Amino acid sequence: xxxxxxxxxxxxxxxxxxxxxxxxxxxxxxxxxxxxxxxxxxxxxxxxxxxxxxxxxxxxxxxxxxxxxxxxxxxxxxxxxxxxxxxxxxxxxxxxxxxxxxxxxxxxxxxxxxxxxxxxxxxxxxxxxxxxxxxxxxxxxxxxxxxxxxxxxxxxxxxxxxxxxxxxxxxxxxxxxxxxxxxxxxxxxxxxxxxxxxxxxxxxxxxxxxxxxxxxxxxxxxxxxxxxxxxxxxxxxxxxxxxxxxxxxxxxxxxxxxxxxxxxxxxxxxxxxxxxxxxxxxxxxxxxxxxxxxxxxxxxxxxxxxx
Length: 307
Known about the structure:
Elements: H1 2-13, H2 19-31, E1 35-39, H3 46-57, E2 61-66, E3 78-83, E4 87-93, H4 103-116, E5 124-129, H5 137-148, E6 153-158, H6 161-174, E7 180-185, H7 195-209, E8 214-221, E9 225-227, E10 242-247, E11 253-264, E12 269-276, E13 284-292, E14 298-301
Helix pairs in contact: 4-5
């Protein structure tokens, strides 16, 4: 039976897959591990594994992209929930590309998005995490995600002997909180990207999202402004060029925009000019620390002295 499943998947995906990966796919399906977390260093094939697993499981499999710096198809600075057969479902705005700078929103966003799968009659949730795996922050972040999202199984991918040792330690650290852990070699097709290549890909994703954007202007009460990174002081914050989110009461992002100008109208109200795909209804505007120009090119971060 397993051999038939292996051959069927390889034929369907037109890929040479290792027996190890395929055996894990089969075990996850047979043991009904419904929530799966995929961890590993950068460029170890986490997204490839996640999408192949979702394709294999086929029935109502959702992928939660929890890497705001290197999303597969989403918007940098966000976490996203995808249905394998239906495209994007929801976004959660983090406002940064580095998980270590905004751990609370990383955890909150993963929890908020995973809860949304219950409304979509999901059978499987695959959490594709960032490459932050160093101890202690990376270990604790993965453990918190596993506990908060009731993860059944954790997949640890490694590239070489050094990362194999680190991932083995990570799996031991989170192992008590889940039913099963798997240590697997990275895909032979996984390639290493330079920092410049990563930055270029983020710029491409930003430009793609804002390719058909328009200019908008609206007034908003200062009480409806939220600043994602902890410690920011809204009363002195310079928000020109900041990436922001139209956030609903459920904390889901309805869309993102870039501030082009801001004007103080009164003590409690400001006028915001921005570029966005459309002006969404919102409960509040949530700002991150990424700065972009009107051409959707990253031009830096919010100044450290505004913290």
